[in-house]
Amino acid sequence: MPNKKIKNKRALVTGATGGIGNAIVAAFMESGMKVVGAGSNRLKLEELSARFPGLIIEKADFTDPNDVERLATSALNHYNGLDVLVNNAGIGISGNVVDTSIEDIRNMLYINLSAPIILSKIIGEYMAAAGSGHIINIGSGASYTPISGMAAYCASKYGLLGFSESLALELREYGVKVSIITPGSTATAFGGGVPDARLINKPGLLLPSDIADTVMCLLYQSERAWTSQVNIRPLNPNKKPKN
Predict the structure, then answer these.
(1) Which of 10, 137, 198, 229 is deepest in the core (most CB within 10 A)?
(2) Which pLDDT value is given to residue 48?
């Protein structure tokens, strides 16, 4: 049901075709927002567009800084500005650093960290001039916790946390909020997993909709209030939820 507080707000969601991004797009569209959904897979974007009439889709290569700049400008032009930016696109490739290719390391750093920085710089500049806006970065439990075999991924997510907190201090005086959500284990296909299989093993894992609900809570918050970090974890990963 559309909510007057956020109806017609203009948003860009990256990683729109993944589990969490898909859920965020759905929540935004159902709330009456105007949404640009960006991703790297054209077919999946078109499938998403078919589900949500009115959704604008943008294919982008998040490993290419020039294409990320193009995406930022294009997204701003679609609706003559943006009120919300959700930096959700991300990849995780397992492997010890010495065994991981330089290309894989580069791609994780570009997609998980460089792309959000570029988008936040360009879109944040517009928001600062407008005197309002909200940038929401999707981090990870790995933003705080070192994980063997995921060093490059952790580096990108630690970096995203530091960037978010610093950017928030820079933009708050302009009326722009910056938040980071750091989800724990979530039933998605991230890292090559199969969501249903993950839920069989641990039925109490977070669902993508839990993350989308958290994003919505941030948007519903009073204009006077700012939440810089939200840590969301499964209450009991091994327990089957009642509903």
Answers:
(1) 137
(2) 96
Which residue is associated with the tokens 């990963």? 237
Q: DSSP string of 51-70?
A: HSTT-EEEE--TT-HHHHHH
Q: Are 165 and 228 in contact (CB under 8 A)?
A: yes
Sign of CA dihedral 183, 188, 191, 197: positive
Which residues in 88-101 are b (16+ Cβ under 10 Å) and which e?
Answer: bbbbbbeeeeeebe
Q: Does residue 197 carry a pLDDT above 70?
A: no
Q: 12 — phi, psi (to 5°)? A: -115, 125
Per domain, the residue ranges of the chain are 10-232
206 in Cβ contact with 124 (< 8 Å): no
Q: Are 108 and 169 in contact (CB under 8 A)?
A: no
CATH of domain 10-232: 3.40.50.720
Q: Is the dihedral of CA 207, 20, 166, 108 positive or negative?
A: positive
d(CA 217, CA 222): 10
Residue-wise pLDDT tens digits, 11-39: 999 999 989 999 999 999 999 999 999 99
Residue located via tokens 């990108």 = 156
Could you tell me what percent of the chain has a pLDDT over 70? Answer: 93
List the catalytic residues: 153
